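Data deposition worksheet. Section B asks for the primary sequence of the deposited chain exactly as it was used as input, without tags or linkers unless they were present during the calculation. Section C holds the resulting structure in token form. Section D is free text for depositor observations; keep each observation to a single sentence. Incomplete worksheets are returned to the depositor.
Section A, Depositor: J.P.
Section B:
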Amino acid sequence: MAVKLWTVHFMRICVANLLLFISLYVLFPVLPIEMSERLGLPVTETGVIFLFFTLGMFLIGPFHAYLVDEYKRKHVLLYSALIMLAAVLGYAFVDGYTKFLLLAAVQGACFGLATTAGITVAIDITTSARRSAGNMVYAWAARLGMLVGVVLGIGMYKMYGFRMVTYLSVAAGLASIFFASRVYVAFRAP
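Section C:
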């Protein structure tokens, strides 16, 4: 008997992952341009925002194992994605360089938590016989989300401006949270 990879819960976590990456990458190509226009900075200086985003991801890394062991992995995913979306919404309203950088650090930390918690949830709901295939499908959902996000971000920015890109990012993130919340993860003893 063949083991089924495509359970409804696995498809939901893959769609949630796709939407989470779209939510992030829709902002990446346009955030430096917006910072430059809003704050009057040269575009070369706005790249520091990605440094703070990455710094946030790396600084939260050592705490990930503790959080997913101490709390439900799905809850770590949901709450970190929700805080990430609050930081994204903040981009539409901030007016200072330091505020942009702090939001980027918060967004990076929460994105790092959400993606790693999402991976553990995907592993938890995949049978051990299909784990390699499941990891590959889950990773391709992220890659597709990066591509779609960049294309959507640039297109939306040209047509409607930065605020609409921000709203699109939040909408994709909320849809991601919805799909992730609908995933059933069976209890496993530590």
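Section D:
The two ends are 29 Å apart (CA to CA).
The CA atoms of residues 51 and 105 lie 9 Å apart.
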